[in-house]
Specification:
It comes from Caenorhabditis remanei (Caenorhabditis vulgaris). It holds the Pfam family Urocanase_C. One of its GO terms (biological process) is L-histidine catabolic process. GO terms for molecular function: urocanate hydratase activity. This is Urocanase C-terminal domain-containing protein. By secondary structure, the protein is of the alpha+beta class. It has two domains: 61 residues, no CATH class; 214 residues, Urocanase superfamily (Urocanase fold). Strands 1, 2, 3, 4, 5 and 6 form a six-stranded antiparallel β-sheet that branches. The chain is globular, with a radius of gyration of 21 Å. The termini are far apart. The mean pLDDT is 94.
């Protein structure tokens, strides 16, 4: 690796070619395969493997899907992603109370006027949070992760801030999220691999997300590179916001979260995802002052007649 990096790279690429050839052989016999999001297919392609689909119009339309194209894309398009919080007290009983609070909020959200596929997400995520403590998921800080949408995150932040204000938890709570989220990452071979309007290779969403969060009251923001697929192929934006029980913390959390999630939902709606289009219309109805440009889709058959 250090004495002859060119040779090392060649050996790695030879190994990738061998591995994808084996996958092709097994897949031909019925195995289902997808890329988990670590740029495996991309690096096989760069190594010379014939992976592009016959109808590929770009360099990311591989014969096998990424897990984002196959599974996660619609979840992000609905606005659900990994919301996080940390009980700075370090006390398990504080985390337990936040879990219980999250369950109550999810129950309330399930009773709202949302599509059945959104209610299914709420049900699945409630089961997760109910099972979290007994499965001993805490490693170090008293923290939790919960897939939630815009409405859920706003409600959770308000409820957590109230727990701090009333002294029901003994110290502030920090809210955040994974960069692997609805809006936090521009990654054409992972998080935005299911964005098909040509914009997947731009880094505007993650940057706008990060800077927009800072304007709206995040305690800190971060803009970083390389998450999951390698330096130069992805931009990630993140934030942290301290809920100290003050009215100001509640105000900032609501304003910031009403940007942090819809930013990405809007982007996905513009690329033609029907679930994202429904989610952003619902957000416009629920958030004062939110106005998002609605996409106007061209007829595919008409486009085929045009000569460029």
């Amino acid at each position: 690796m250090t004495s002859d990096p060119a040779k090392f790279k060649k050996l790695v690429q030879d190994s990738l070619i061998r591995q994808i050839a084996a996958i092709d052989k097994i897949a031909a016999k019925g195995m289902y395969f997808w890329d988990y999001g670590n740029a495996f297919l991309l690096e096989c392609h760069r190594a010379g493997a014939n992976l592009l689909r016959e109808d590929a119009q770009d360099d990311k339309s591989f014969r096998y899907p990424s897990y984002m194209q196959d599974i996660m894309g619609d979840i992000f398009s609905m606005g659900f992603g990994p919301f996080r919080w940390v009980c700075t007290s370090g006390k398990p009983e504080d985390l337990r109370l936040t879990d219980q609070t999250a369950c109550k909020i999810i129950d309330e959200l399930k009773e709202t006027n949302v599509p059945e596929y959104v209610k299914q997400q709420y049900s699945d995520n409630k089961k997760w949070i109910e099972e979290a403590e007994k499965n001993e998921l805490v490693v170090g800080s008293q923290a939790r992760i919960l897939y939630s949408d815009r409405a859920g995150r706003v409600a959770l932040a308000a409820a957590f801030n109230e727990l701090v204000r009333t002294g029901k938890v003994s110290a502030p709570i920090v809210i955040s999220r994974d960069h692997h989220d609805v809006s936090g990452t521009d990654s054409p071979f992972r998080e935005t691999s299911n964005v098909y309007d040509g914009s997947a290779f731009t880094a505007d969403m993650a940057v706008q997300n990060c800077i927009g969060d800072s304007f709206r009251g995040a305690t800190w923001v971060a803009l970083h590179n390389g998450g999951g697929v390698g330096w130069g192929d992805v931009i990630n934006g993140g934030f942290g916001l301290v809920l100290d029980g003050s009215p100001d913390a509640s105000r900032r959390a609501e304003g910031m979260l009403n940007w942090d999630v819809p930013n990405g939902v809007a982007r996905r709606s513009w690329s033609g995802n029907a679930k994202a289009q429904e989610a952003i219309r619902r957000a416009e109805q629920q958030v004062d002052g939110m106005k998002v440009t609605n996409p106007v889709e061209a007829d595919e058959e008409l486009l085929k007649t045009l000569k460029f």
